[in-house]
Every structure is written in structure tokens, then in C-alpha cells.
């Protein structure tokens, strides 16, 4: 069993938990994910690792309630435990293998949308710990929906919050903030965008136009996270990939987002049905 040491609800429908999982904490790297299971018959839920403490042996996960299983998971409290907590899975972010000195010469931009700020955070933190400071844009609908603000500010070179309703930070979508930063003379060598599929699609359309290579995380389309269900199958250029085993990170300019979003919709319907059943 994997004990939950802390359970918080930092924003509406968004939950953060610290879980005791020393083996995962010892071996994980930014970009990787875990699969959690609440009980023997529970659904397998893939979640990107938001933070880890190797000494304390803990992993931080952040999730948004989107269906029956995540709704049930939101009810777990500190002291409860997960039946399974498998990981680390997936490939670490590519920069982990790059030479630190050449990373320091790059101008990197990270873009997180909504709960996508959670998987962006360990990447920015890892880079900061290795002496690489990057720019970070985090977007949400309103100020209340922004998560991990203090944490992100502590590790980002520059932190730019954006809200759709203009209540805080830059007023508007993350794409308008990217345009603004580029107009102001920021020549980014690479962009990493993680968030809702539609956000990643529009960030990629923009960065393609601006000539900024872009990495995206296709975690949102994963279902079982083992390469068995086929739900995360996607086209990356001419190649067919599975987000859970070949990714989750891919060249965003090559990802067929329309196909991936169609597939995601299909599963949403099933999640919706399961949620209705839970509420009966
Ligand atoms: Fe099922 Fe990747 S999530 S095959």
C-alpha cells in the first residue's frame, strides 16, 4: 500500500497529494508518469509526476476530476492509501540527457495550461537545480484556478501568469503572451507546452509560424498507460506512436492533434457514463 501523506484541493476540481513511494521517488525523472489504482478492482489512472523528494521518498501527484475514478480519488484523505502506485513510467524529458553547458546557452520557454502546470513544474525545477533558468507561462481561466504559483516562481527565471478573464497577470490566452514575449525580443530556441489538447494544438500552430521547435506531452489521451489498450495511439508525422510507451513527449509540430482529440472525446463519453453511474 502507498500511503497518502498530504491531500489538498488547491483549486476547484484540482487535487494535490503527496504519496509515500520511495522506490519511484528514487528513480524518477522529469517527464515521467505513474499509474495509480485505488483498490484491487479500481481503474488504472496514469498521472504525470508533479514533484518528488528523493530523501523523504515521496511523490507529488496533481489531478483534475474528469470522471468517476478521479471523482472517487478526490475523496481520499491523508492517511488513506493507494493499492498500486506503479512507476516511474514513460521516457524522461529529452533535456535530461543533454549537456548542461549547452542547455545553459539555450533560451527555453515552458507553457503550462490549467492542470498542465503540474507536469511543467518538475521540469523547470530540474533545470533550475542544474543552473538553467527558463521562462514560464502558466495559463488558467481565472486567478482561482492557477496552481503551484509560489513553487513555480521559486524555480522559474521569469514567471508569467495569464488568465482568460483578465483577473490576474496577462489578460488572455497563453498564445497571445508567447507572441508578446517574442515581439519584445525573446528569441526562444525551444518551447515545451503541456496542458489541454486544444491549448497544445494552438501553441504548436503559433510556434511553427514563429519557427520555435516545440515539445508537447500527450499524457491527456492515456487510459491504461501500458501500451495495451491502444487509446493513446497517435500519428507523429508519418509514424504511429503510443503516448504511454513511446512518449509522453513528442515533437508538437508533427503531432496530429485533430486525430488525438477525436480519440480523447470517445473516451470522455465512457468516463461520463461511469460518472453518472457513480452518482446514481
Ligand atoms: Fe493504453 Fe497507451 S494508454 S496503450
TrEMBL record:
[2Fe-2S] cluster binds at residues 229, 232, 244. Its cofactor is [2Fe-2S] cluster; FAD. Gene3D superfamilies: Nucleotide-binding domain of ferredoxin-NADP reductase (FNR) module (3.40.50.80), Translation factors (2.40.30.10). Keywords: 2Fe-2S, FAD, Flavoprotein, Iron, Iron-sulfur, Metal-binding. GO terms for molecular function: 2 iron, 2 sulfur cluster binding; flavin adenine dinucleotide binding; metal ion binding; oxidoreductase activity. It holds the Pfam family DHODB_Fe-S_bind. Residues 1-95 form the FAD-binding FR-type domain. One of its GO terms (biological process) is pyrimidine nucleotide biosynthetic process. InterPro entries: Cyt_c3_hydrogenase_gsu, Dihydroorotate_DH_Fe-S-bd, FAD-bd_FR_type, FNR_nucleotide-bd, PyrK_electron_transfer, Riboflavin_synthase-like_b-brl. FAD binds at residues 62-64. PROSITE patterns: FAD_FR (PS51384). Binds 1 [2Fe-2S] cluster per subunit. Binds 1 FAD per subunit. SUPFAM superfamilies: Ferredoxin reductase-like, C-terminal NADP-linked domain, Riboflavin synthase domain-like. PANTHER family: DIHYDROOROTATE DEHYDROGENASE B (NAD(+)), ELECTRON TRANSFER SUBUNIT (PTHR43513), DIHYDROOROTATE DEHYDROGENASE B (NAD(+)), ELECTRON TRANSFER SUBUNIT-RELATED (PTHR43513:SF3). This is Sulfide/dihydroorotate dehydrogenase-like FAD/NAD-binding protein.
Amino acid at each position: 500500500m502507498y500511503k497518502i501523506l498530504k491531500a489538498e484541493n488547491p483549486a476547484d476540481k484540482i487535487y494535490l497529494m503527496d504519496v509515500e513511494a520511495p522506490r519511484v521517488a528514487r528513480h524518477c525523472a522529469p517527464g515521467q508518469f505513474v499509474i495509480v489504482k485505488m483498490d484491487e478492482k479500481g481503474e488504472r489512472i496514469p498521472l504525470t509526476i508533479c514533484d518528488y523528494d528523493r530523501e523523504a521518498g515521496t511523490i507529488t501527484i496533481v489531478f483534475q476530476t474528469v470522471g468517476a475514478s478521479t471523482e472517487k480519488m478526490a475523496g481520499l484523505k491523508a492517511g488513506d492509501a493507494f493499492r498500486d502506485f506503479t512507476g516511474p513510467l514513460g521516457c524522461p524529458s529529452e533535456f535530461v540527457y543533454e549537456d548542461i553547458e549547452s542547455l545553459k546557452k539555450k533560451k527555453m520557454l515552458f507553457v503550462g495550461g490549467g492542470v498542465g502546470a503540474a507536469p511543467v513544474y518538475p521540469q523547470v525545477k530540474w533545470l533550475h537545480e542544474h543552473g538553467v533558468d527558463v521562462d514560464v507561462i502558466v495559463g488558467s481561466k481565472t486567478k482561482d484556478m492557477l496552481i503551484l504559483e509560489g513553487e513555480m516562481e521559486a524555480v522559474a527565471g521569469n514567471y508569467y501568469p495569464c488568465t482568460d478573464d483578465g483577473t490576474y497577470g496577462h489578460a488572455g490566452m497563453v498564445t497571445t503572451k508567447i507572441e508578446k514575449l517574442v515581439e519584445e525580443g525573446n528569441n526562444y530556441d525551444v518551447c515545451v507546452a503541456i496542458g489541454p489538447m486544444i491549448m497544445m494544438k494552438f501553441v504548436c500552430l503559433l510556434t511553427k509560424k514563429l519557427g520555435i521547435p516545440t515539445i508537447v506531452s500527450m499524457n491527456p489521451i492515456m487510459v491504461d498507460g501500458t501500451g495495451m489498450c491502444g487509446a493513446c495511439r497517435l500519428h507523429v508525422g508519418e509514424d504511429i506512436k503510443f503516448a504511454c510507451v513511446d512518449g509522453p513527449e513528442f515533437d508538437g509540430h508533427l503531432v496530429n492533434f485533430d486525430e488525438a482529440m477525436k480519440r480523447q472525446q470517445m473516451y470522455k463519453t465512457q468516463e461520463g457514463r461511469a460518472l453518472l453511474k457513480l452518482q446514481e
